[in-house]
Amino acid sequence: MQPTEGPITLEELALAARNKGIPLEALRYDTTPTGMHYLLVHFDIPAIDVASFRLRVGGNVGRELVLGLEEIRARPSVTMPVTLECAGNGRAKLVPRPISQPWLDEAVGTAEWTGTSLASLLADAGVRPDTVEILFTGADHGIEKGYEHDYARSLALADATRPEVLLAYEMNGRPLEPQHGFPLRLLVPGWYGMTHVKWLTRIDAITEPFTGYQQRIAYWYRQAADEQGDPVTRIRPRALMVPPGFPDFLTRRRTVDRGRVELAGRAWSGVAPIVRVEVSVDGAWSDATLEPPLGEFAWGRWSFAWDASMGDHVLACRATDAAGNRQPTDSPWNVQGMGNNSVHSVAVHVR
Question: Distance (Å, rounded) from C-alpha 222 to C-alpha 243?
């Protein structure tokens, strides 16, 4: 379907009913409760019997491995907080609107993930030196833009063997929920969500770049459908605000009482640490107080004291990372609606 400036379509509504974002008031939690964490499922949630589940590691390796979940859980484990964000977050605010899951700002969450090192497993399999990429295949199967396929993505060998990359089997101290990839998923901290292949069944070392749909066609920054573009990889910097006061049911417009109001939220980047968060009141920007992040690959809290005066106001926040990347007022448009990290604005009435 072509981008549109028209009303939201039935197809978009159906996607929005299947998938879910974080309620922005849940940004108050350091770690997102599992039921509030954002969720995107491309096809169907597979029905996987854990007793018969096997992860197969093969391709260009010295020896193939076939592992059950208990064998994977018996390997050395790591637990870390990681912020995940969908690459399409903010898509619905672009004009014209790319037709897909219609995210606004809510496709994000931070969980405590537990798993085992992918690099260690690949070392046990003996990945051969002429390997170019590691391919990850999930159990979810469907059709997108006419292509029938299992959901699959690859990483360059150097990215796949980074020490933080995990095969995750727990989220917030419990086995993965079915919708979050039970029994096993890939976790690639710092990268947008499409990289974190769920319901993982196969890992293959390959000697040529992978050209499957989710790699070669989806997840590119393209200004036109026929151009090469740049691949979507790491998460761009973003700050979000806990909406202050209380909302109108339909419009979500906020009401607060006049006087001192503490504004707060979260900020993160997959490129470099966040070094600055700013808050705007009706276009005037000031520095917020930034707290240390939960971890190397997780968001940090920010706060700002606002002396709220009577009337209608527009609040906004933006983040800057250590590499000098700052959220723009308006993100450049692209065909697939990827990486729109424009500033978060909240309309408020002070009474």
Answer: 33
Query: What type of residue is 128?
Result: R
CB proximity list for 301: less than 8 A, separation 6 or greater = 30, 264, 265, 266, 290, 291
DSSP 335-346: TT-----PPEEE
3-state SS class at 46: coil
Q: Which class would CATH give 10-231?
A: alpha beta
pLDDT in tens, 259-305: 999 999 999 999 999 999 999 999 999 999 999 999 999 999 999 99
For residue 83, which of 275, 266, 311 has the smallest C-alpha distance? Answer: 266
Q: How far apart are CA 272 and CA 246, in angstroms?
A: 34
Q: Please determine, looking at this structure, whether the domain spanning 238-350 carries the CATH number 1.20.1440.20.
A: no
The verdict on pTM exceeding 0.90 is yes
Whole-angstrom distance, CA of residue 47 vs CA of residue 179: 10
- Here the tokens at position 186 are 């890939």
Domain parsing of the chain, residue ranges: 10-231, 238-350
